[in-house]
Amino acid sequence: MPWEITIINGTIDNRKPLGTREDVIAVLAGAAPRVELQRPPRPPEEMLAMMPPAVRDAMTRPKLEADFECDDLSIQFYTLDTPTIDWINAEVRGNGDPLPLFRSICSKTGWSVIDVAENVVVDLTKANAES
Fold first, then answer.
1. How do the residues of the chain divide into helix, strand and coil, expressed in percent and rounded to 5?
2. What is the dihedral of CA 106, 107, 110, 115, to 10 degrees?
3. Which of 96, 47, 59 is nearest to 74 (CA)?
4. What are the two backbone dihedrals, phi and then psi, of residue 68, each rounded to the nearest 5 degrees?
5. What average pLDDT score do residues 97-123 get?
6. Residue 24 has pLDDT above 50, yes or no
């Protein structure tokens, strides 16, 4: 079962935008050069035509995605493709430690990682440099 997180700016109750699309893409790429938020390919039209309208709408909504894989860790990042990015969601899978990557992403920006299931801020200080 994946661990779902959201990267935000501000607090759980008082969120601010992460930044412009370009700045957010640069922050992720700077923290992990293999993490480049980009638009995924659009599903084929014949596939879209078979989907219910709500699913079709979700599948065609402009979004950005990035994948990170390292040893026994896989993370899929995703957000809406808008001029200003408000949040980044991610699904974490595997037995590796994602906290060093999240700390690298958030340390220079002041962003926070929220555990979606618990609705709490993740303590990124638990990450160590050796992980």
1. 25, 35, 40
2. 40
3. 96
4. -130, 130
5. 93
6. yes
- Could you state, in order of their start, the residue ranges of all structural domains in the chain? 3-126
Q: Position 71: which residue type?
A: D
- Label residue 80 exposed, middle or buried (CB < 10 Å: 0-12, 13-18, 19+): middle
Topology, domain 3-126: TATA-Binding Protein (3.30.310)
User: What would the pLDDT profile of 66-87 be if each residue is shown by its tens digit?
Assistant: 999 988 899 999 999 999 999 9
Query: Model pTM?
Result: 0.85
Rg over alpha carbons for the chain, rounded to the nearest Å, is 16
Tokens of 79: 């957000």
**If DSSP codes are grouped into helix, strand and coil, which group holds residue 117?**
coil
Indicate the pairing of strand 15-16 with strand 3-10. Answer: antiparallel
> Sorting pLDDT into bands at 50, 70 and 90, what band is 131?
very low
How far is residue 97's CA from residue 124's CA, in Å, rounded to a whole number? Answer: 11
Provide the residue type at 124 as one letter: L
